[in-house]
Amino acid sequence: MRFLMIEDAEDLAEGVIAQLSRAGMVCDLASTIEAARDFRAVQDYDALVLDINLPDGSGLGLLREIRAGGDRTPVLMLTALASVDDRVTALDAGADDYLGKPFDQRELEARLRALLRREAERKSHDIELGPLSYTPSDRSAVLGGKRLDLTRREAALLDALVRHQGQFLSKTRLYNSLYGFDDADVGVNAIELYIARLRKKFAGSGVSISTRRGVGYRIGLDG
Questions:
Q1: What 3-state DSSP class applies to 194?
Q2: In angstroms, what CA-CA distances link 68 with 33, 94, 105, 148?
Q3: DSSP 8-state secondary structure symbol assigned to residue 180
Q4: Which of 29, 118, 145, 179 could form a disulfide with 183 if both were Cys (CB 3.0 to 4.6 A apart)?
Q5: Peptide linkage before 102 cis (omega within 30 of 0)
Q6: What is the DSSP code (8-state) at residue 169?
Q7: CA-CA distance, 37 to 99, in Å (whole number)?
Q8: Cα–Cα distance between 2 and 88 in angstroms, integer?
Q9: Cβ–Cβ contacts within 10 Å for residue 65, how many?
Q10: How many angstroms separate the first and last alpha carbons of the chain?
């Protein structure tokens, strides 16, 4: 799960991101609307956490821009503006949920999980690839009738490959699906380790991950 938090109060944001990371969620931070646009131009997110009062404009303006473009990414408003009128305005503009500051971190995490469940139910269908059946809603997989034991990052990698089966995905694209922009201590070649682990789990099943040098990796069936 990867989120973008659009918040200019850095102390607050860094605390939230640290807690989300411990809960197994990758979260990037944009402190302005312009920065948020830049992040979204190069990365897809499972959900956005959006403040209203930002240095270069209103988060509501960004929300309306996102919805006007047909983007249905779930958006949780996280703001000190917590009156009924504020909540109604944000929800009418396309927000999926609204949480006022101050807040409890546990409630924020629970609301994000609820948003993801709703989105997964909206898109719910298993993806089949020969003997492999992948369920996007909980990132679980069954191979030959047996559930695969996947770590969080193995599941994230499999998610990216299966959703784009038939396409070669570059190391950089796969890396961005597993790590936050601030994970500078983790090199892009870490992807090779997770690819090797998935290949080992698929051994003898007919499902394989092929490599094209200079292009990337693709999941498919043998032959």
A1: helix
A2: 16, 10, 30, 40
A3: -
A4: 179
A5: yes
A6: B
A7: 22
A8: 27
A9: 13
A10: 32
118 confidence band (pLDDT: 50, 70, 90): confident
Find out whether 69 and 37 touch, Cβ atoms under 8 Å.
no
Name the strand (E) or helix (H) holding 10.
helix 10-22
C-alpha to C-alpha distance for 173 and 195, rounded to whole angstroms: 13
What are the start-end ranges of the E strands in the chain? 2-6, 26-30, 47-50, 53-54, 57-58, 75-79, 97-100, 127-129, 132-135, 140-143, 146-147, 207-212, 216-221
Predicted confidence at residue 48, as pLDDT, reads: 95
Residue (of 141, 144, 129, 106) closest to 222 by Cα position: 129
Q: Specify the pLDDT at position 60.
A: 95
Whole-angstrom Cα distance, residue 44 to residue 176?
A: 9
Q: Find the mean pLDDT for residues 40-49.
A: 89
C-beta separation of 75 from 37 below 8 A = no
pLDDT mean over 19-25: 84
Phi-psi domain of 139 (left: phi exceeds 0; alpha: psi -120 through 50; beta: other):
left
